[in-house]
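Do me a favour: review this protein, sequence plus C-alpha cells, and tell me how the chain folds. Record follows.
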Amino acid sequence: MPRKVVRGAGWALTGLFVLFMLMDVGIKLMRLPVVDEAMIALGYAPGIGFWIGVLEAVLLVLYVVPRTSILGAVLFMGIFGGAIATHLRHDDPVLTHDLFGVYLGVIMWGGLWLRDPGLRAVFPVRRAAPPRSSETQADHAVCAATV
C-alpha cells in the first residue's frame, strides 16, 4: 500500500479518536449532570468525572504531540483498562460497555501505528513464512497425524 494512503488512514483514525475524546473530555470538564449521574451509578463519588476529564485532557495533549504520542497512548490504556474493569464489576453488557475501552484502544493504537513508521518497525505485520520444502511438509503431516 502506498505510504501516503497508510499515513492518511492513520491520521483519519487519529482524528476520529481525538474528536471522540474531545467530546468526552468536554462533557466532563463542563460538569454536566449526566456525568455525575453515570459515575454515581457506577459506584464513584460525585465530582470525580471532572478530575477524570482533567487527566484525559492531559493524556490527549500527550497523544496529539508527536514526540509524546506513544506515552499518551500507553497512559490512555490505563484509563481504558479502568473503565473496562468498572463495567465488568457493574455487570454491564459486554459488547456495548465492557469492550468499549478495547474499541477505543484499537482505534487509538491503529491510528498511531499507521502514521508512525517507527512504531510499525517495532510491531511489524508479518506474513506467514512459505514452506521450506516438500520434505518439511511431509514431516509436519506425519507429526500432526501422530498427535
Summary: The chain has a mean pLDDT of 87.
